[in-house]
Amino acid sequence: MLAAVIFDMDGVLIDSEPFWQRAQMAVFSELGHPHSEADCDSTIGIRIDQLVAHWYRLRPWVGPSQEEVVQRILDRVNALILSEGQPKAGVLEALALIEAQGLKVGLATSSPFAMVEAVLGKLGIRDRFLAVHSAEVEPFGKPHPDVYIHAAEKLGVLPMHCLAIEDSFTGLLAAKAASMRALIVPDPALLNDPRLAIADHRLDCLSELDAEQLASWVAGK
Hints:
Pfam families: Hydrolase
Mean pLDDT: 94
Keywords: Carbohydrate metabolism, Magnesium, Metal-binding
Cofactor: Mg(2+)
CATH class of the largest domain: Alpha Beta
Oligomer: single chain
InterPro entries: Beta-PGM-like, HAD-like_sf, HAD-SF_hydro_IA, HAD_sf, PGP-like_dom2
Structural class: alpha/beta
Protein name: 2-deoxyglucose-6-phosphatase
């Protein structure tokens, strides 16, 4: 039986993937390495420092350090969140359904804690989450499972009794590696990705979630 639901943040709670894309394309262009939408899509769900290190290995630049590039991207994303951030369709309704089932609610994200607080504050839902955990403090980001395992620990629930909600294959791998059940609500860039078949459940939008469906998942069906 389920005892908790753990949300990913970017692309699940808030439509921030376009913000990450805009920030990456702007910053990498400034470094002399134009970034395409396909480049951005290839790293969805990866922790920002690992993302920057990945592109530095493939397309090294002269000038700012990797740490400075990370901060430039984070600053741009934060500014976009504060000015344009909106909850994804169905998020508020899904939270209400989950709470009505008596389930604990947590968050496990690759984004740093400062950005988590910015997003939850902007959306007005900080008090809906009993536990928040970021891969910022983990040795490895997703797809390593630790961010999910430690989020479950904060909730006081075994991972096998948690449902993770993800939008990326990277995050889905992390949730499954943590021995959690997983609901994929795929990013539009991944709609036809056959790898998403490893998810236990799939919805095209969180607004499709209903009480009967959730109750069946809670019961282990």
